[in-house]
Amino acid sequence: MMQERPLFRASAVGKSYGKQLGCRDVSFDLYPGEIMGIVGESGSGKSTLLNCLAGQIEPDTGDIAFDVDGTGLVSTLQMSEPERRMLARTQWAFVHQNPRDGLRMAVSAGGNIGERLMNIGARHYGNIREDAIGWMGRVELEANRIDDRPANFSGGMQQRLQIARNLVTGPRLVFMDEPTGGLDVSVQARLLDLLRSLVQELGLAVIIVTHDLAVVRMLAHRMMVMQKGHVVETGLADQVLDDPQHPYTQLLVSSVLQV
Amino acid sequence: MSATPADAGDGYNFAYLDEQTKRMIRRALLKALAVPGYQVPFASREMPMPYGWGTGGVQVTAACLTPDDCVKVIDQGADDTTNAVSIRSFFARTAGVATTESTEEASLIQTRHRIPETALREDQLLVYQVPIPEPLRFLEPRETETRKMHALSEYGLMHVKLYEDISRHGHISTAYAYPVNVGGRYVMDPSPIPKFDNPKMDNCPAIQLFGAGREQRIYAIPPYSEVKSLDFEDYPFDRLRASGSCALCGADDSYLDEVIIDDQGNRMFVCSDTDFCGSRRDQGHVGDQSDLFETGAE
Question: What is the ipTM of this complex?
Fold first, then answer.
């Protein structure tokens, strides 16, 4: 699965809000098809980090690079804004914790899925609709709900719709911010199954932020543990979860409720 | 500093606005003409009429008027509605200019919701009253974001609206304020004219100026510009016109108003452009009387 050339690189990324530290000195490489989990408690800086990586906020220090066309890493911070926005619409995807942030609630499911296609120039209604129906099937939404607004969908369905909307343009890197947050456990399990099969099928690289260690165990190949804006431990996900070295990681792992 | 003509009465400066304000508006107009379809901010003034009654159009007209101009004002195609009559008399009084109801005679036409049926000429100005200049407003409420979308030509969202129309109604049901692309660059709201009028903006010899008073924006289409209505390849733009002909003048190619004529559900269709209809009747055209009570919409 691993290739020699990294798809994405963060070098010494840091961001603070005045005196308040967001995150500091975060570096890692991500390879095509690899899933990186970032865990930590609320306020540990993991969402700040994700927003920096995805170009939604500008980091104070460090650099972020992405292999745009397979020819090597290019700094996304040096790019012009149109290039960065184009990247975010085509090769990247961002799945928000709250589907309301990632969906247009007043637009039908089909319109939501079709938006990214129309953004990159699709102008044939029939084809857009066909793509939308295809993607609804892949995320286990019934095709007859295509003209319903997401406001009438359950939380799990909204989240699956958000995933379809993001993946329709065939991105290579997906950022996820607590994709299973706020869903009940059976819906969470189905969503995780779906994510795992889609990621494998499409060979996506994923950076996923979560506080749920089970999500990391199921999805991630590698993980980073963050505390107070710093990365305290990194490694293979199974290794870190089974044999945590840092006291904070040990606390996290032992805090998980065993049923 | 002002060159007030003697016939501007009642102590007003020529065409009501002071000269500095008119210069400011003219600068915005020149910029708007230089960047077709781009919304230029301007310092909209209080006018002696409420917002929504054409304060933007009136300011643009005032900035463009010369003492030799002949002004025509239409509201929904009609010269004799309240708004049209009062704006016409406003300029007759504050600028002392000639006014007319004839499209042919007018050198400046201020309009709300229509483009005259009679083809416009190079020596004419068409000034539109615009309530909401931002075509993306109801899709993306953040002005910071819509400006960025204009700057980067990110207009996919406009098609999401048209997609929604088709998915809900089976055709593009947007019937007025139908978005257009000007010169292959900016997407523009043509003000709430019926989409029947959209093709008239394309390659039009007259200068078209748009003023939004409350929103403080001016935009423009220079003469002979390409103006294309947005559509899908498999759902092309369609003009939409009530079928049938005018009950008064018999025109079968003009935009028709539907008029309810009693409480039995009877109705008639008449030209919305009163000058066009009147001059056709003067030329001897008559409407089909038998058509009067049976013409159906669509």
Answer: 0.86
